Amino acid sequence: MIYYIIIALKVFCFYHIIRYRNSYYWFFLILFVPVVGSIIYLITQVYNKRDAEKITSEITHIINPTKKIKDLERQLQFSETYQNRVNLADAYLGIKDYNNAIPHYLEALNDSSQTDFYGIKQLIEAYFNSEDFEKVVLYAEKIKEHSEFKKSRSQFLYGLALERLGKVDDAEENLKAIDIRYSFYEERLIFAKFLMSRKKDVEAKEILEEIQTESQHMTKPNKRLYRATILEVEKLLNEV
Known about the structure:
By secondary structure, this protein is mainly α. α2 (25-32) crosses α3 (34-46) and α10 runs antiparallel to α11 (168-176). Helices cover 77% and strands 0% of the residues. The longest helix has 18 residues, at 2-19. The radius of gyration is 21 Å and the shape is flat. It has helices spanning 2-19, 25-32, 34-46, 49-63, 65-78, 82-94, 98-111, 117-129, 133-143, 153-164, 168-176, 185-197, 201-215, 220-225, 227-237.
């Protein structure tokens, strides 16, 4: 049990560092001295009396995600609001329970008086992971004119869904939008593979070489995070 608590503390601290853009030296402190580093970070960067209950709750939810589901279900039963339903759907999506996430997103969208970009974006994610590519296309086309759709993961999933449905030209047009330097490393790798499948090795190689070059300037935490992606890029570069 102690081991899982330490892991949960580290995960929460890393999440907090990224969310609030705190100095990256905290990553190293927490990584090499997990218990002491996490405690120092919580005391100096997070903790105050008003936040204590919230922190305890978030750590508990990391250790036991089903408790979070049950808490959100009770909250929805108490007050059937749009936000409570979306929060529950997000929790199901977080544990990859797409069969339960999708109905709640759909119900939330029915209750919304306007087009809800966030809800549809999450629904696209759930449908894609459920391999319901026609629904991905259906809902993506509801928001594709939205400014936040451009160069987003939702547009990327839209492109992949189009590919699965045999619309490869439209797929390439949407997948290409994600080719943004110093970001979307995994997505750009997938796009390079897509280009290779279409015999466009020159374009694919260019993307792979860009990722390889960018990887040399990554921080150590990012190098660890994208290690598998970088290795696969290097492997593919030897093949094209």
